[in-house]
Recover the amino acids of this structure.
C-alpha cells in the first residue's frame, strides 16, 4: 500500500512571503498526483494535478504554482502569499483510471497573517 | 447547479442507530463514486467506492448508487461515537474528482 508524506505539518507565514510545500509518495510508481486546498466552509478545491514528471495541469488560476521534479515528488509553491491562501493543503495520489481512488496525505495547515 | 451536492447541516444520531447521508451530482457521465470520512483537523480517508447501480456493503457501511436519479447515498449501521466526523462525497468526472462540501455526523452516546 502507498504512503503519502507531506511537510511541514503546520506553517504560519506573513503576507507577501514565499511558500514551498512538499509531497512525496512511497509504495507506488507513476501515480497521478493532486494538490487540494480546503478552506473553512468551502470544501475541497482541486488546485493542480500531474500525470507525470514535469506535467502539471492547473485547475484554478491564482498565485500558486506546482512542480513535479521526480515521479513521486510534488511541490506547491508561491512567490508571494495572500491572506486568502490560508487553508489546509492536501496532497493526494491516485491511479488516474476512471476508477481512480485517491488517497490523501496528512496535509499542511497554512495560516497567512 | 453545483457538481456535487450534499445536505447541509449536522446530522445527529443516537448510538446504535442508522445514519443516512445523501449526495447528488450533475454530470450524468460520471462513472465512479466515493465516500470519504474526515475527522476534525485530519485529512480525508477513503471509506468505500461504488461503480454500479445498487448497493455495496462493507462492514457497517452501505453505499447505494442510482445513476438514473443521479444520487449516491451512504448508510452507517449501528452508529458508534467513533463515527462522528464529516463525510465527503466525491464523483469522478472529466478525469478528476469533484467533492461535495461534506456532511457532519454527530453520534450521541
Amino acid at each position: 500500500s502507498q504512503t503519502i508524506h507531506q511537510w511541514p505539518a503546520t506553517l504560519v507565514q506573513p503576507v507577501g512571503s514565499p511558500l514551498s510545500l512538499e509531497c512525496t509518495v512511497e509504495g507506488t510508481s507513476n501515480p497521478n498526483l493532486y494538490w487540494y486546498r480546503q478552506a473553512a466552509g468551502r470544501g475541497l478545491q482541486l488546485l493542480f494535478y500531474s500525470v507525470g514528471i514535469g506535467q502539471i495541469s492547473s485547475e484554478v488560476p491564482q498565485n500558486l504554482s506546482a512542480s513535479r521534479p521526480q515521479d513521486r515528488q510534488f511541490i506547491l509553491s508561491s512567490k508571494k502569499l495572500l491572506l486568502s491562501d490560508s487553508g489546509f493543503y492536501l496532497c493526494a495520489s491516485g491511479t488516474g483510471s476512471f476508477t481512480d481512488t485517491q488517497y490523501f496525505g496528512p496535509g499542511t495547515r497554512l495560516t497567512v497573517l | 447547479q453545483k457538481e456535487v451536492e450534499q445536505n447541509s447541516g449536522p446530522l445527529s444520531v443516537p448510538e446504535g442507530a442508522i445514519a443516512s447521508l445523501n449526495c447528488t451530482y450533475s454530470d450524468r457521465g460520471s462513472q465512479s463514486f466515493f465516500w470519504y470520512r474526515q475527522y476534525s483537523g485530519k485529512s480525508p480517508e477513503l471509506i468505500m467506492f461504488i461503480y454500479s447501480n445498487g448497493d455495496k456493503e462493507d462492514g457497517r457501511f452501505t453505499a447505494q448508487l442510482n445513476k438514473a436519479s443521479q444520487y449516491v447515498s451512504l448508510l452507517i449501521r449501528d452508529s458508534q461515537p467513533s463515527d462522528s466526523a464529516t463525510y465527503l462525497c466525491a464523483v469522478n468526472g472529466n478525469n478528476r474528482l469533484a467533492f461535495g462540501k461534506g456532511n457532519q455526523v454527530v453520534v450521541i452516546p
Observations:
- The CA atoms of residues 19 and 64 of chain A lie 9 Å apart.
